Amino acid sequence: MRLVTHVHESSERPGALVEHDGTTRVVDLAGVAATTLDILTDPALADAARAAIEAADPALLPALDDVRLAPPVRPGQVLAIGYNYEGHRGPSRDGSLPSTPNVFVKTRNALSGPHDDVVLPRVPAAVDYEGEIAIVVGRRMVDVAEADALAHVAGYTLYDDVTARDWQHATSQWTLGKNFTGFGQLGPAVVTVDEAGDLTGVELEVERDGVVVARATTAQMVFPVARLLHLLSQVIPLEPGDVVATGSAAKTPEASASHVPMADGDAVTITATGLGSLTTRFVSPTTSGEPS
Fold first, then answer.
1. Are residues 200 and 65 both part of a single domain?
2. What angle do CA 97, 248, 120 make, to 5 degrees?
3. In the chain, how many domains are there?
4. Residue that terminates a domain, selected from 14, 48, 69
5. Cβ atoms within 10 A of the Cβ of 65, count?
6. pTM above 0.85?
7. Helix runs in the chain, H state only
């Protein structure tokens, strides 16, 4: 299933994406569960959701273009990983692979949905994008063995770890640069593990204004999903609905050489095999109508 959270009369409801005659449509699952997370974590509700999707007449469903999506889940915590792809490993004294992942936290105010614009800060900030695959936890994880880790995954989605590079590198800690409001776009859908598989051979690609600026496959991950979850759960309990953003691919040499910070009207699109696409649109506070 491709599960979403959609907005109906100012309330958030669970739903699913289906294809019909070349158009993506939305099945409302409010009659099945209160939240998308309930469906992701309860096998009986998941079965009921599948039945509701199968019973729906796709010709009568609203097109995704006519529906507003919220973040598919609202995680208790978002843990993000730096330097997790070959070619984007960060500083190393001897070129060896690290034994411990580079972990940082994205705070709750950073969360935004797939149809939310990312509002550029009012203060000077060199804003950048980082297209990533995100894990959605389905079962509580405490010191889980690597061999058992994938059984605790509910599904996968996409994440833009938006970052203000100057604020990120102003101190030894990355927190301020990573956590301006809206700097963690999540979605559009959580693809359940029965459909997404174990991410083997998934290609991750990022386009900026129509030009490919980053590309990698999950085979290039320094810490693959199972290893990553095992290591994290040794230290931090992971709860159902928590999100782990698995890191971004390095920019292409051409993109790195020509990179300029994001500006009003810029857009990036993150695509991963089987997980769909997530487009981040950047707007100035003036364009967004955000109060001063």
1. no
2. 140
3. 2
4. 69
5. 9
6. yes
7. 36-41, 43-55, 165-168, 175-178, 193-196, 225-233, 253-258, 285-288
63 and 116 belong to one structural domain:
no
Are residue 144 and residue 251 in the same domain, yes or no? yes
* pLDDT, tens only, 45-89: 999 999 999 999 999 999 999 999 999 999 999 999 999 998 755
b (16+ CB within 10 A) / e for 146-169:
eeebbebbbbbbbbbbbbbebbbe
Mind listing the pLDDT tens digit for each residue in 129-183? 999 999 999 999 999 999 999 999 999 999 999 999 999 999 999 999 999 999 9
Do 207 and 266 belong to one domain? yes
Helix (H) or strand (E) holding 122: none
Could you tell me which of 109, 246, 228 has the C-alpha nearest to residue 178?
Answer: 109
Which residues form the domain of 13?
A: 2-69
8 Å CB contact between 32 and 16 = no
